[in-house]
């Protein structure tokens, strides 16, 4: 934040470095080393999708009489969480490497939702197929696919290549923390309208509670429950505003929801982490 106030730091450039340069090595390295089983990964991903669907339904019902663009902005702000800049470093700090591995799975699932369902929520006419094509172009997709193939075949990369990937993976979390600082510095567009307060209330309060209910329903263990709840406690992603601006679904509401949820999450995440099982923190 200090650097962003003193110098001109382009958040788009930092975002591109993260998404196209560092996230893929981080995903590859995490999946090659993770102890999360396929069953646990599928359960985590399915749980996040279920929470997202329930959150979207509640947001849609609450804003039933709102204009279409406002309704889309609220639903998008509730469903699209910041599981990258916020989620990855906080999971590492709060839950350790196992939590980080699970957070990576949840982050990838959130990326799928963001680039497939997100544009549809915000008014795109391209459909899910168009979103899947965009997701297939992301390096993180290919990084995960390569890691999955190598693990399936029980192969390892040459030591020189794997060390290089480890170096890039190690740069990912510090870089997303830098991006987070820039984001917090630029979170100045704030309008306390009813749609904004509705979106933020659902995202910051209702979403983590839904995660608790879904985790109980699926009988998830303590670590998986903590990872899911922590992921669902993250603020609205900046991409919610970018998608709203791209497709004309009330970008003002989305921008204010991003700013307010980000500010409030400093306190709400502290509460969430404090009530996680004592053996995990």
UniProtKB/TrEMBL annotation:
It is found in: Cell membrane. GO terms for cellular component: plasma membrane. InterPro entries: Mem_transp_PIN-like (IPR004776), Na+/solute_symporter_sf (IPR038770). The chain crosses the membrane at residues 41-62, 74-96, 102-123, 135-153, 165-184, 196-218, 224-244, 256-280. The keyword Cytoplasm does not apply. It comes from the Bacteria. It is a multi-pass membrane protein. Its main location: membrane. Belongs to the auxin efflux carrier (TC 2.A.69) family. This is AEC family transporter.
């Amino acid at each position: 934040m200090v650097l962003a106030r003193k110098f001109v730091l382009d958040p788009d450039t930092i975002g591109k470095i993260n998404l196209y340069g560092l996230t893929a090595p981080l995903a590859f390295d995490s999946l090659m080393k993770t102890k999360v089983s396929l069953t646990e990964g599928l359960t985590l991903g399915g749980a996040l999708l279920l929470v997202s669907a329930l959150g979207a339904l509640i947001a849609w019902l609450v804003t039933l009489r709102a204009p279409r663009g406002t309704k889309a902005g609220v639903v998008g702000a509730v469903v699209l969480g910041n599981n990258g800049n916020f989620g990855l470093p906080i999971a590492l700090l709060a839950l350790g490497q196992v939590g980080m591995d699970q957070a990576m799975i949840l982050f990838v699932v959130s990326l799928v939702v963001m680039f497939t369902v997100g544009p549809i929520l915000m008014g795109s006419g391209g459909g899910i197929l168009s979103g899947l094509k965009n997701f297939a172009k992301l390096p993180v997709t290919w990084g995960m696919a390569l890691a999955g193939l190598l693990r399936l075949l029980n192969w390892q990369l040459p030591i020189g290549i794997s060390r290089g990937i480890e170096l890039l993976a190690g740069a990912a979390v510090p870089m997303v923390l830098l991006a987070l600082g820039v984001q917090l510095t630029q979170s100045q567009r704030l309008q306390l309208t009813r749609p904004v307060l509705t979106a933020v209330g659902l995202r910051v309060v209702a979403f983590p509670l839904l995660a608790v209910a879904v985790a109980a329903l699926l009988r998830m263990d303590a670590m998986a429950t903590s990872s899911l709840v922590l992921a669902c406690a993250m603020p609205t992603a900046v991409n919610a505003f970018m998608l709203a601006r791209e497709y004309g679904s009330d970008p003002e509401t989305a921008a204010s929801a991003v700013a307010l949820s980000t500010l409030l999450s400093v306190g709400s995440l502290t509460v969430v982490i404090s009530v996680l099982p004592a053996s995990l923190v």
